[in-house]
Every structure is written in C-alpha cells, then in structure tokens.
Amino acid sequence: MGENKVGKNVSSGAKKVEAIEKEKAAASASAPEGAKTVKKRTSSARKSETNTRKGGKTARQKQTRAQKKEDAAAEKRLEAAKAKAEKKEKKLLRKAEFKQKKLEKKAQLKEKKLQKRAALAEKKAQRKEKKLENAAALKARRTERKANRTARREMLKNESKAERSARREREKKERRALTAQRREQREKARTQRMKSREATRERRAEARKQRREQSSARRKHAPGFGGWLAAVISLGTACLALGAIVTAGAFRMNDMDLSASNGYRSTLYEMVSVSEDMDNSLSKLRVSSGSREQRALLTDLLVDSRLMESALERMPIDSMTSTDIAAFVNKTADYCTTLLKKLNAGGTLSETEKNTVSYLHGVNAALYDELNTMTTGMTEKEFAAFAKGGENPVAQKIGEMGKGTLQQPEETVDAPFSDEGNVGKNRLLALEEVSVSRAEELARQYFDSYHIANVQYSGETVTDDAVCFNFILTDEDGVELYARITKNGGKLAFFNLYEVCEDKNFDLETCDMLAREYLKTLGVEDVEAVWLSDAGMVADLTYVAVQEGVRMYPDVIRVRVCESKGRVVGIDAMEYLLNHKEREIGSSLTREAAQEKLSGGLEPYAAHLAVIPLDGEETLAHEFACNFGEEEYIVYLDAMTGEEVQVYRVRNGAKGSYLE
Fold first, then answer.
1. Which pTM does this prediction carry?
2. 64-83: pLDDT as tens digits
3. What is the rounded distance in angstroms from the CA atom of residue 380 to the CA atom of residue 387?
4. Which fold has domain 584-660?
5. CA atoms of 207 and 201, how far apart (whole Å)
6. Residue 442: exposed, middle, or buried by beta-carbon count in 10 A (0-12, 13-18, 19+)?
7. For the chain, what are the domain ranges?
8. Which residues pair with 496 in a beta bridge?
9. Hey, how many other C-beta atoms are within 10 angstroms of the C-beta on 374?
C-alpha cells in the first residue's frame, strides 16, 4: 500500500517530499528490510521522474527543429516562386519591347519608302519642268542661231564679188596661218626632242671619255721610293705630300660623282622619252579600229615597256621605290602581249579591252608629266644627292609617282551587252557598194551642219564584219573630225570630233534631245535610250531599236554629246548597221509570272521585254531594273523559262554611271 502511494504522488515536488517523509517514518517503525525496499523504490521513482522530464524536453526540441526546417523549406519555395514569376515577367516584357521595336522599325521603313517615293515624284516633276525650260531655251538659241545664219546669208548675198573674194582670201590666210602655226609648234617640239636626245648622247660620250681617262690615270699613278724616303726624313714634307694626295683624290672623287650624276641624268631623260613614246602609242590605240594599225602600236608599246624596265634597273633607287612603276610597266607589257595574241588569231578588241587601254593611257600620261616636270625642274644639287643614293627628294618623288600607278582599271561596260558585236546575219552585205568619191559626198552630207572646209581620204579599215572608208574632215576653225563610211551602203558607222568640252551648259535630257535629232538626219528614228551617263563634260548616250514595244539590244547605237556646245561629237553605229532588221516576237511568260521568279529582296521599279544577244544568238528576255536596299541591279530572265541569264550591277563613279 505504501508503494502505491509513492507511485501516485510523483506529479509535484512538494507531494513527493511529503510522501518520502511519511514512508521514512513508517519504515523506522516497522522493520529494517522495509527501509531498504522503500529506498530502492524512491530511487526508481526519481529516475522515472528524471526520464519523464528529459523525454518531454527532447520531444519539444525535435518538434521545434522540425518546425524550423519546414519554415525554411516553405521560405525557399516562396523565394523560388517569386524568382520564377519575376523571370517570366521579364521575358514577357522583353518580348513586348521587341515587338514594339519591330513595329516601330516597320513604320520607319514604310515612312522612309513613302518619303523616297515623294522625293522621286518631286524630282521627276523638277526634271520635267527643267526639261521644258531647257527645251524652250534650246528653241530660243536655235531661233537666234537661225537668225544669225539668215543674217550672214543676207550679208553674203549682198556682198560684192570683190568683197567675197577678199573675205575668202582672208579666211584662207587665217586657216593657213593656223595650220602653219601648228606645224611650227610640232616642228619645234620635234627639234627640242632631237636636241635633248643629242645632248643625252653627248653627255654619255663625255661620261665614257672621262671614265676612260680616269682609268688610265689610275693605272699610271704609282707611289715612288723617293716620296717614301722624303716622308721618312721630313714630317713637314710628308704632310704636304699627304695633303696633295688627299686633294688629288678629292678631285678624282668629284669627277666620278659628276660622271655618275650625268649618267643618271641621261637615264632619266631616256625614261622621259620612252614614256612620251608610250603615251603617243596608247593615245592612238584607244581610238584605232584597224587590226593592222593596232598590231603595230602594240608592238611599239611592247618594245617601249622593255626599254622603260631596263632604264629603271639602271637608276640609283632601291627596289621598294621602283617596284610600283616596274609593276605598271610589266602590266602594260603583259597586256600588250595578250592583245597581240588575240589580234594575230583573227580577233578584235572589245569595248572592255579598249577601256583598259584608256586606263593605261591615263596612268602613263600622268607618269610622263611627272617625269618631264621633275627632269626640267631638278637642280644640280638634287641630281648629285640622287646619284649618291639613299633618301633624297628625287627618289622620294619617283616613289610618289609609283604610288600613282597603283590605281586599278574599272572592268566595266558602258551599257548592257555593249561588247557583244555582230549577232546573226551581217545586214551590210546585202547593200550595194559605193566608191570613194561617193563616200566622200555622203560624208559631207552627214556633217552638213559642221561647216566642213576640207575632206581628206585616209585609207580603209578592214574588219571581219565590214570594210570602211576613212576620212579626216576639217571645219572652218581647223578642228579635225575622223569618220568611217561603210563601203557597203555608204552608211556612217563611226565618227569622233576632237573638240575640248570645258563647261557644262546642257544637261542629260537636253543632250538626249540633241542626239535624237541628229539620229533622225541619219534615218534612225525608232530607238529608245537605255543608258545615259554623264562623263565629265561629255554625255554618253546608248540607244537601241524598238519594235512593238520590245527593246532590240543587238541594234545598239552609242552617241556622245558635248555639254559645252550642245552638239554631237561622236557616234558608233556599227552594231546597229550589222544587226538591224524586223523580227518575229514569240510568246513568253507574262511580266507578273516572270517577276515572281526574281531573287528574294529585289524590288523591281521598271520592266521591259527585250531581245538580247546571248552566246552568239538572240534571246527574248524580261528586263527588270531593281533596287536591293541602297544598290541597283538590272536583271534579265529568259522570257520562255524564267531562268536568270544576265545580271548587271549599276555603279556610279567619277566618269559617270557604269555597269559591272
């Protein structure tokens, strides 16, 4: 019973103490064994109480740690959810911004396109207005010129026979004086060149003589025993002798420097002479059309190139300084060799090859001017420094000349299919042949408004396609005009007026009107301008025949108009004369169907149906003038299949517009 009471009173410390005291009292009154038993029970109770307290504390700690873990995990999940939401929000924001920018860019492009169209429309209106103004001005000038001519006719009509004879004699004397003056200038220039060459030969002979004398003097000179003995005996005498020897050596060195300077000067004069010869040959080659004359000019150029290369090797300049000029000279020689092979095989020079010849002429002309200026303006002191080599103004100038030869030729054409030549049957062969006298009469008719005073026959030009009579016509002012009249039919195939155009008084539209009027005098009317280019003060205009609205590119005519005086100064109608005929226009894809086959990104702004020369045959094609961003292209698609057959890139340069 006492054990049960102890077991029940363990909830409170005070009760436990009271129970223990009562048990101790009862145990003292009863037996010793009971005390021992009670003591054991009390110890067990204390352990139980202690375990109970510890168990409760441990459970609470575990519960607290679990709660903290759960709170931490919940906090992590919350942070992750927040981060994910923020990332999603940023992504949506970026997407919205990108879409907004895309819409803005699209709107800007649309606005830019509208502005461009408006600008083009305004420019077109301005051009039209200016065209009308120019037409009115041209009409006024024509009226004025007509009035002047009428007044002159009236004056000539009313002048007496003596006055007419005196006027003609005066004009004849003026022409003769001008001709004599030009002849005198040419003779003077030729005499000057001969004197220069003679002086060069004399300098070379003098230099060789001096070298021989110096060599002989060196062989005769040998130090003697007496001089050596005198030097040993007397220090003063030795000093005098040494001074004499040094002075004599200095004289010899000065003589050698002078000889070298003269030799290099003669080499430089030789370079000037060779460069001048190359300039003459290149100038003739770019206008020559006969294969015989072209072969002769190319042979001369090949020889002159080798002479120039040899002269460069004798100059006291390093390889780096002469490399650029030598490269240009070698390039000229190689190109002359290539053209000679082509001509010897029966070929002809294309327009692209003539463009390259013109490029070589321009570079060589600049080189010749620089060499001539340097030779005439160089002082003796500069020549002496040049002869010694190293850094000096002359070598530096030659290096600058070399840099000027580094410009590259433009591999271009002046109009679409401009160098295709004859396609198909030669139409000239069916025409009747004319005599030289008849060709001369026709030449006077073709240039009736050019005030021709003299016509001189200068031989024939024979090519694979046609035979032409060559004429040199001179007007009242002594200006020369070179023309070719076909032997079959007596047609004007080519002419070039050697006139300088210095001012720009006429624009392209007015030049187009002037060219069309001149073509009408030749019987050519149904043509369309396909290419207008403003090269300096001369307008280059390309026309093709038109049949039922279709452009005939094999029937091409090129016309050059001087923008200073407003008259035609050149024409090339050979391809038109060879190919012009009536053609049967076959069926084709519609323009819309062909346009769908254009490459992506091309925006066509003009389209035509055209017959083009392709691989020696005529092909019907759709012609599209397109924009690709800021660049322009001309694309030709086969009218039957829609296949792309030719692409030109439109470029603008210092010499006007051209195609690549």
1. 0.43
2. 888 888 888 888 888 888 88
3. 10
4. Nuclear Transport Factor 2; Chain: A, (3.10.450)
5. 10
6. buried
7. 31-118, 265-404, 421-583, 584-660
8. 482, 570
9. 19
